[in-house]
Amino acid sequence: MAIQPGSGYTFTASSLGEFLNIEKPWSEWDNGGFQCSPYKVHDVVLKTGEGGDYVVFQICSATFNNLIPQSYDSVNEEWVYINDLYEDTEFVLDFASTTSSIVYMRVGVDGSNFPATSPAGGTNDPYPRIYSTGGTLPSDDDDFGYVAIAQVNQVSAGVYTVEQYVTGSLWGDRVKLGTLTAKYYYARI
Question: Looking at per-residue confidence, does 186 or 15 come out higher?
């Protein structure tokens, strides 16, 4: 075996075997202390644009029933999977003249499939999607179930805190009995 010494390590071979000496052991990736966990809402920032001030956020990748949800990228004006984000991707928070905004996921039924397994496009697409509202979380109905992921609160101008409700990927079920409104159940996986 012929391995040459390199920066930060040495390699020796003898009749006793081969030895790799690491002078500086590898450490965990240093990301400034930030840990991305499924559905974590982070980097909430006040921005100023042509239409005035708006607040944007980032969200860590996650799954719902093994599907990767989408969110609307207001910069590129398209629905994107939350695991395939561009550097300039911005998700705008809806504060609706309040000081808090709920980030939530809407999941719909497509015929007899829950959840819908592929995006169809359009406003009422039943595929799992991330939204925000400055009001209250929408109520479940026969077509869609809603789960709060986080709440962003404005502490003062440009300063925000995040109350994280969901910290892992989710599995969900929809139960519809007769004429009763469908019920939705979620579990962290």
Answer: 186
